[in-house]
Amino acid sequence: MLSRLTRFQAVAVCAVPLAGLLAAAVFAPLPFSVAQPGMTANVLGENQGTEVITISGAPTRDTSGQLRMTTIEATGPDADVRLGDVIDGWFRTDQAIMPRDSVYPSGQSTKEIEQHNTEQMEESQDAATEAALRYLDRTDDGIKVTLKLSDVGGPSAGLLFSLGIVDKLDGNGDGGDLTGGRTIAGTGTIDAAGTVGAVGGVSLKTQAARRDGATVFLVPKDECGDAKSELPKGLRLIPVTTLKGAVNALTALEGGKGSVPSC
């Protein structure tokens, strides 16, 4: 016959598996990535000693100002992120805790992920070139555009690539710079038709932009809320949905004529 456990004994017995669960939660790797503001690059200039945008088959302009694409840096797909890292990240404005599957495709090796990101960047560059030449109505002019940006993957620089091509070929359409001499930063995917798409990590990208001197940030309209959540002082948000809308907003901002959208 089994004897009944005292209250103290019952608590003691239950505490053993509970302690094990807590230890597992603290020390076991979790399916998250820790992200922070990453590098930015001026697509109108050089990156690691190489021009980001090279155009042949048409005369180009000397530009002033900057168009800076932005990135985030995240822990690698094989990195161990533990409960302490997650708790620390929740209370910091310069970090974000993101599901690993939202940063890296699930079920792939590090090499496969790198290949995937490279392919996305190449597709983004092709789409950005076509969008810019379509916007300028110069798809039949035999213009060749080469885009080079080292150590960056994914599609989120598409909008800035397109704007850089437009600025180098046409500026604001009236002899001036599309940037108006400012440091403009931003993010957003783009397709060949010029539609701007959402990306991740916008609140971290605004911090990277302001750190590197930007005063204006172009953000996909659907991500205004995220961009405003940790907006650095001195950085103006301009929501965009298309390449044409982005060009019009920058032209209005430069000339002081017309309305400039805001989040």
Protein model, in words:
This is Lon proteolytic domain-containing protein. The chain has a domain at 39-73 and 126-255: Ribosomal Protein S5, domain 2 (2-Layer Sandwich). It has helices spanning 7-27, 83-90, 100-103, 110-135, 158-170, 202-211, 224-229, 243-255; strands at residues 32-42, 46-47, 50-51, 53-56, 66-74, 96-99, 144-147, 183-186, 189-190, 196-197, 216-220, 236-240. The chain is of the alpha/beta class and 263 residues long. α4 (110-135) runs parallel beside α5. The protein has a 6-stranded mixed beta sheet with strand order 6-1-5-8-11-12. Strands 2-3 form a two-stranded antiparallel sheet. The chain has a two-stranded antiparallel sheet with strand order 4-7. The termini are far apart. The protein contains 8 helices and 12 strands. The model is unreliable at 1-25 (pLDDT under 50). β9 (189-190) and β10 form a beta hairpin.
| Termini separation | 72 Å
CATH class of the domain at 39-73 and 126-255: Alpha Beta
Helical content, roughly?
25-40%
Mean pLDDT: 85
What structural class do helix, strand and pairing data support? alpha/beta
Please count the beta strands (DSSP E, at least 2 residues each): 12
| CATH-assigned fold name of the domain at 39-73 and 126-255 | Ribosomal Protein S5, domain 2
Major β-sheet, in short? 6 strands, mixed
Strand content: 15-25%
How many helix segments? 8
Radius of gyration computed on alpha carbons: 24 Å
Tell the overall outline: globular
Written as H for each helix and E for each strand, in order along the chain, the element string is HEEEEEHEHHEHEEEHEHEH
Spans of at least 5 consecutive residues whose pLDDT stays below 50 are 1-25
CATH architecture of the domain at 39-73 and 126-255: 2-Layer Sandwich
Strand order, largest beta sheet:
6-1-5-8-11-12
Domain Lon proteolytic: 154-236
Organism: Streptomyces griseoruber
GO molecular function: ATP-dependent peptidase activity; serine-type endopeptidase activity
Protein name: Lon proteolytic domain-containing protein
